[in-house]
Specification:
This protein is mainly α. It has one domain. It is built from seven helices and no strands. α5 runs antiparallel to α6. The termini are far apart. The mean pLDDT is 89.
Length: 108
């Protein structure tokens, strides 16, 4: 809806990319859990976020444009994937982060 009413370059070019990790990773990990490929229902780990960030960046920004002629690889899309993944990872790990920040020096 916002794209129709604004000329924002960020909104038109990068906002969807910012949402890739937060929106696509949880259903993928849930499917892996159902298939028995993931052993827990915890939020995504930093390693899972990084692995899919790298795989999707290569797939969507390097391989995809070579296979699909009307698409273009954009390095700024990868920056948006990283920012979205970092924000999502911070949100998903907020309890552990809060526990870490509350812990005293002898509890670490």
């Amino acid at each position: 809806m916002l794209k129709l009413h604004t000329a924002s370059a960020f909104l038109h070019n990068y906002f969807d990319d910012l949402l890739l990790i937060p929106c696509a990773l949880p259903p993928l990990l849930l499917m892996q859990r159902w298939l028995g490929l993931r052993q827990h229902d915890q939020p995504p780990t930093p390693a899972e976020i990084v692995i899919y960030l790298v795989v999707w960046s290569i797939l969507f920004e390097i391989i995809g444009p070579r296979l699909i002629p009307w698409t273009v690889g954009d390095p700024w899309d990868i920056v948006a994937y990283v920012v979205g993944g970092a924000l999502a990872g911070t949100w998903w790990g907020r309890r552990e982060l809060a526990r870490f920040l509350r812990a005293g020096p002898d509890e670490l």
